[in-house]
Amino acid sequence: MEALRAAIPAEEREAASDAIGRRLFASTAWRDARSIHAYVGVGPEVATVSILERAWTEGKRVACPKVVWRPQGLTAYVVGSLQELVEGRRGLREPDPDRASVAESRFDLVLVPGLAFDRRGGRIGYGAGFYDRFLTEVEALKVGLAYNLQLIDSVPVEAHDVRVDRILTEKEAIDCRIERRESDRREEA
User: Fold this and answer.
1) Distance of alpha carbon 125 from alpha carbon 112, whole angstroms
2) What is the pLDDT of residues 137-186, one digit of tens each?
3) Where are the domains of the chain?
4) How high is the pLDDT of residue 189?
């Protein structure tokens, strides 16, 4: 999946990221959110800088993750601008702890990255479980951002995996909670 995503030409990724952002901005989840947690997209990930900038313009409280390697996890920091981000390990843009403050774990909306998603909200991350641990501690609507090609039929889900509530792609908005209910009904029949 990483190779497929990386093979998308940069201009197509940019257009798809813009379409995903427009879909997000049109949602009631965005309009109602006073506080959001958003990753800072790097490389071929769905770009989130325009989402962060719009959130600041609209006066939303914005937090971004900083990877903590020992013990492994994510710490959310309140961030007021792109200038409060620095390059961390593996090229990640993260909050500078000297310029940002640790955020409480209550958000209205959490934007979640991933390599692949299924319609039931299953997610394949990057293998270290950072987001799964973080998402178990956070009360919020969890929205995966992905290019349409990142949607697959089924993601193997283990007990510690946390499903997202919704997925936004450049082509559609998926309510994973509805998809799970419908799938469960089909399995029971």
Assistant:
1) 9
2) 888 999 999 999 999 999 998 888 899 999 999 999 999 998 888 877 77
3) 2-188
4) 61
CATH class as words, domain 2-188: alpha beta
| Alpha-carbon span 115 to 21, nearest angstrom | 18
Is the distance from CB of 125 to CB of 113 less than 8 angstroms? yes
82 φ, ψ (degrees, to nearest 5): -65, -25
Structure tokens at 137: 């501690």
- Residue position matching structure tokens 């641990």: 133
Task: Give 152's DSSP letter.
Answer: -
129: left (phi over 0), alpha (psi -120 to 50) or beta: left
Which three-class secondary structure state does DSSP give residue 136? helix
**Position of tokens 């799970």?**
180
φ, ψ at 28 (rounded to 5°) = -65, -30
Distance CA(32)–CA(57), nearest Å, equals 15
Number of other CB atoms surrounding residue 184 within 10 Å: 11
What is the reported pTM?
0.92
